[in-house]
Model the fold of this input.
Amino acid sequence: MSEGFKMLKKEQLAPGIERLVISAPLIAKKAKVGQFVIIRVDEYGERFPLTLVDWNVDEGTITVIFQEVGVSTKKLGMLQVGDCVKDVFGPLGNPSEIKKYGDVAVIGGGVGTALMYPQVSALKKVENRVVSILGARTTDLLLLEKELAVLSDELYVSTDDGSKGYKGFTSDVLKNLLNEGRRFDYVFAVGPTPMMRAVADVTRPYGIKTVVSLNPIMIDGTGMCGGCRVTVGGKNRFACVDGPEFDAHKVDFRELMNRLRTYVEEEKEALCALEENLKRMRANV
Amino acid sequence: MSKLSPPPQLMPKLKVEERIRCFKEVALGYDAEQARAEAARCLQCKVPRCVEGCPVNIDIPAFIRCIKEGKFDESIKKIKEKNSLPAICGRVCPQENQCMGKCILGVKGTPVNIGALERVAADWERGREIDKPDAAPPTGKKVAVIGSGPSGLTAAAELAKLGHDVTVFEALHATGGVLMYGIPEFRMPKDIVMDEVRYVESLGAKIKTDVIIGKIITLDELFETGFDAVFLGTGAGLPSFLGVPGENLSGIYSSNEFLIRVNLMRSYRFPEYDTPIKVGKKVAVIGGGNVAMDAARSALRLGGEVTVIYRRTEEEMPARREEVENAKEEGINFLFLATPIRFLGDERGWVRKIECIQMKLGEPDETGRKRPVPIEGSEFQVDADTVVIAIGQNPNPLAVRNEERVKLTKHGTIVVNPETYETSMEGVFAAGDIVTGDATVISAMGAAKKAAQAIHKYLMEKK
Done:
């Protein structure tokens, strides 16, 4: 059994959204943009994927950013600096295709805005002109806006409630830019599945190469379970070993969204069980 | 009982009404008295056919004689000369096609229950300190074993016994491979797997989990960091799908996913364990092998009404007889000579019905079994809100996905020299399901043992 992977830094980026720096020297050495790790918080935990946001070979660390939504992310959020994550497994998936495309739009929604960072950074390094569009429900949930502003050639912000930037969705911002006559050679989108679908719908009529980073339900991450299968261009593909990035215009988003809802009830039940446990623990202290 | 023909001892089993509600082991194992009585049935043949039937050549008459004489410690020592994982083999080997299939008593009556006797000897050892086989002096050679399933553990044990410095790299968080993620608790208790793994460690092998070779460390890097040889035992872990419409509807699992959730992630104890599983009212399991039986019996224990849909007849089912009988006793339904042609879902994309087509048996195919042929116009529908596809696994070449020097067949298995088990890359060996495709625990172990001998030869001859 592995003894675990020590958490070295923990920082709250927004309510319920955290950035963790974890010691994982071997993973740091091999990590590439677009890859992910599978995490299991403790002996009872689920295995779940998190995209690598950053890594440092010299310090032997990796960085992940996540939102506390289910039992596993809640548990991960409860760990303190110095605690160990039971399992960190990776790097998994294929690296992003980073090359000089020309004019590029990188779009992120929700916690996905954090995942724009390595993309924008890598795309800039090979001399692309990068327009970043980041969106969230409300201002508080916008992540890494400053960092992205420094990296990007242009930056647009949208919020669902209009508390900052454009009131609406990131896909609308992209649509407006295209309507104004702006042209892109490559679009990359990461975030909630409906957002990625909306971006795909916007770029499809323009024939712009559009890539999305999918986040289906996954267990092992090595091609064994087939739980992360998605239909891409009519073919069955596994996000863990064939992805996680796919041609947005070929992904069957409707099927993916249905499959993502498989355990909605169980997720609630597990959260209730966790809260009950916590209550009991507090009562015993 | 007469000394000449003692009656066969029946394997005691957990009562059906109890076992369908829990994941406790079904076969309870002989007690010492039963074991000695069963052992007394062995004719101690001068030319024992049973040994020929054993892929790892255990001296079966010898270990049975020890049991008959009540010397259980001698018995397990005898077994461990040839087999490092007897508690596992005693439970999951298809003995009816191997040792027991060859037993002379089986010609006219019931063969000696060799599997049950192996299990008794192995279980007797649990919790006791038994002398380990003498390890050879250290050779100074380092071997990396990729995968900790049956073939990897066997190769690791053999190589450690030969004095090599062995490190096993496992991708998952738990060791044991298919024994942990695939075979359910009620057939292969996980604490027994852990004990067998600890035994392999006690022989000197080191095990590292959460390490994905090919991604985090390449084969070249293994050699660069001082390993002298690599053994690939990565198994057949990729799920097969039917390739029919609707197969990605929610509620449809590969057998791998279903069993990984239940076994490795322990979702039968959800929400104590965090990983959920969803078993509806009507479960259909597609396939007729041991994996299909494991999935069906797991689904039943999780509250579903389960039907196994198999394209041939009961005759041709590849599952072990014993498992089919257990499944029937527990109330699993069987629908033979049928195969799904599409899955139908509701407005939320959840599976509701399976459209099947009736099959008939035609001419024998290359496996010698009669080929199932669809009967035109015979389509019919079956209700199902959970489906498990258990039609076989493919080899998992992830470790060598970016390694062109290791040649694969068109089926994705690794090409090896049948004599030396060496792949097309020097110093890299392979055995088990990754070479043969989806087979049994014991065949993988048998091949791994021979591969270990070949690796030993390679290492000792290498300058």
